Amino acid sequence: MIEHRASLSIPLDIARLVTADYAPVSATPGLAFLKGYLFRATPLAIYIITTSIGKTPAKETVLYTLTLLAPRTTASAHADGTYSASSAPVFAPNETVPVTTRVVQTGVVQIPATLSDKTPETTGVVDSGLDLKDKVTSIPIIQVPITSPISLIRTASNATATAVIVDKPITTVTMPSGDIFADPIATAAPPSQFQIRNDHPVEKKGVNSTTPLQTNKFFGNFLVGSQSAPAFTHPYSVAWAAGKGAAGSWGMAISHIEASQRVFGKARPGEGGEASYFINPIGIQSLIVSSKDLGKDTIIATDSITAFSARVHLRPNATAMPDVSFPLVQGMAFVTAQFAGAVPVIQSGVFFRNVTKVTADPKPGVAKFNFHLEDGRTWRVYAYATKGDPLELQVINNGYAEAKNPFYGIIQVAKDPGNAEALYDEAAGVFPTTVVLSGSTRSKAGSYTFKFAKDGHQQGTLVMYALPHHVESFDDTTRAAVREVKLQTTTKGIATAVMADQWTMVEPNLPLDMTFAPWDPERGTMTKMSDEARALIRGIAVQEASQNMAAQSDLDSMYFSGKALAKFAIMLTVINDLLEDKKLAEPALGKLKQAFARFAANKQKFPLVYERSWGGLVSSASYVTGNSGADFGNTYYNDHHFHYAYHVLAAAAIGHLDPSWIPENMAYVNLLVRDFANPSVHDMYFPQSRSFDWFHGHSWAQGLFESWDGKDQESSSEDVMQAYAIKMWGTVSGDAKMAARGNLMLSVQARSLQHYYLYTKDNKVEPAQFIGNKVAGILFENKIDHTTYFGANIEFIQGIHMIPLLPSSPLIRTRQFVQEEWDVYFSNGRAQDIQGGWKGIIFGNLATLNPKAAWDFFNSTDFDPSWIDGGASLTWYLAYSAVLGGL
């Protein structure tokens, strides 16, 4: 059933709603039966239709989003706010229908009878509401007013300096040789100031592992919650059927969504008429691979977990060996199922129109079946028998086909877009098990390679699907392996088939010359400004450097504390490198070192702990408070690349100014990097690349939460910040490979984010009805929603992709993009109407396009300090504008 969203103003006088047609709805998120249907009620301001219900006019109302979940007759709501919706399977496994068998030139066709009393499930489920359960809705800028300093900082003399800045700070590092992903940053245990815990609030489901586990990857839904939410491999999604759906199966359901099946949200009032979101239906069980023994006692388990892959097992019960296992790898062209003696079952909620056993095997030992479904789509099924009998399938009914004998080998399922049969035949029997990542740099170019580990038939080369940013950057060898077969993905455009056992992507222009100074893609690093601008900025810098750095960063959030530290650190690079005022910078640097030392000693309000259950460095906040959303869910592995990278960026600036500070702080800062950006599989304390997804070309922010739309991320610009922080810390600390990874990551993001997050009018990847929004808002694996978790103000939605303003910002946010976005949302005085710190963010962003206009705003006589959020400085905004504008 499709889930539809509507917002209703519901009277808070809930007694009036208790009638034959209406059940009580409270003023908090919950469930309600309304005219025979079960709804989830969530207080949100995002709507399609607004109406009023209630027998009498209500004086007080609250705006809800109601998501239709199921007919009342098949659903029940529970006191804990959950619901269950179920109906008897359309077909029981032992229910037979007449099946006609015909011999044709290409094979034997089984045609089940057409039934009038049963309907295939072809529409799926669309939950277009924004799920705020376990989500933090705090605005991600520091809004506490910054008090004026009581006294101004004293400039240093040689006798009074508390920190000494080198005459020539480090700005470059030697180009590394060899694989930049091969070596771990470090292998030591976390330093003694970090408590070690063996427990974590989130139970690992179906995983028995003593090594660090991935927490932010595509297969995460198999490890938490019900274990039945989808995993998006692109272009397919797979989900444990868990006895639900038309087939009532306990196997692995496979789905692929066409662009024509998407649901688009209506434009919100006051916006540009673009779709407010687009979403792909889930729950369409095109084909399901299962076994005869799987039932209500089925257990799901996962092993072989890497940054790119995992293997999921279905066992008939807790003590049984797996009946069927699924090696899942991003980009796989076939969904592969491994059998070791179980009786395979192929099911469908869409129903079989006919099933053909092809007479001619595509290669020795590989049988082939064509499944034509009631939605008009064709799926190819291949079975490679490694021993015993080949696969023989008997169609029992329109949704169930069973093997005649136990099977040893693999069954592979792939959707044919219409021109893939020959390619699939050639590749059948071969499947990927994981990906080995490597990379290198040479001169200004960088490259990264996916080497696919493979198994199966000895004949054949792998076919995998590549995303648009991959294809655009393939080297010549990989480009030659591109085929004409294409499949739609959920949120990443059209995937292209590539027949090769490895891919190499090249980024020809790494931003090697980018430092702490303003930077332009064409002009490079820039430092010059007029004496008048320098004098004006110095006066403001004295004020801001005199602020209480220790107090501003002494917060109960690693995120907000890191933003404060990074703000002051960037400001000090301006004072020293652009204003050339070492005597002002040195005492301020001393204050910043003291503020940073609190975190290096792990004495902040919620110290970090190393937990062994999943394997990572997390805030103690959720352990102490019991709140999963404390510090934006840091304990649950949300946003680590944001939180920790602000601290890494601050450390890079301190080390840039005073390299002698680095040795004492190296282990701590590297520990933070290891948690979210460990490059190697040889670090036994952290998983490889927890946050950044080298397949998608950007990070995922969501940690250990079940999500029916997959992983998600809001802030593309903070994702860029973490890459920039890695680059700069690697540079100042002398870790050439880390700096190279940061440079490569920035270049990959410049390509991928401009396809998937930031939309110019010529974007051909995302839907035409959506790109006018200019930014994604929140990008999920299964949908893109032009909103934020903390509100739908346009300055929130656009601005979350601007913060923080850094030298790396113009690399990602091009002048063309900034111009188009400004024209849509902020031109003609509309930016002046924005309030608070978001106003400064919007005009800081303008400096990339029109530095003179930004300078005039920040230097205006009526400038209000509240327009600068607590994670930014007026010193930096003015310096950035002055240097880029030659002012």
From TrEMBL:
Residues 200-521 form the Glycosyl hydrolase family 81 N-terminal domain. It catalyses: Hydrolysis of (1->3)-beta-D-glucosidic linkages in (1->3)-beta-D-glucans. Its EC number is 3.2.1.39. GO terms for biological process: cell wall organization; polysaccharide catabolic process. This is glucan endo-1,3-beta-D-glucosidase. It holds the Pfam family Glyco_hydro81C. One of its GO terms (cellular component) is cell surface. The keyword Transport does not apply. PANTHER family: ENDO-1,3(4)-BETA-GLUCANASE 1, GLUCAN ENDO-1,3-BETA-D-GLUCOSIDASE 2. Keywords: Carbohydrate metabolism, Cell wall biogenesis/degradation, Glycosidase, Hydrolase, Polysaccharide degradation. GO terms for molecular function: endo-1,3(4)-beta-glucanase activity; glucan endo-1,3-beta-D-glucosidase activity. InterPro entries: Endo-beta-glucanase, GH81_C, GH81_N. Residues 529-878 form the Glycosyl hydrolase family 81 C-terminal domain. Belongs to the glycosyl hydrolase 81 family.
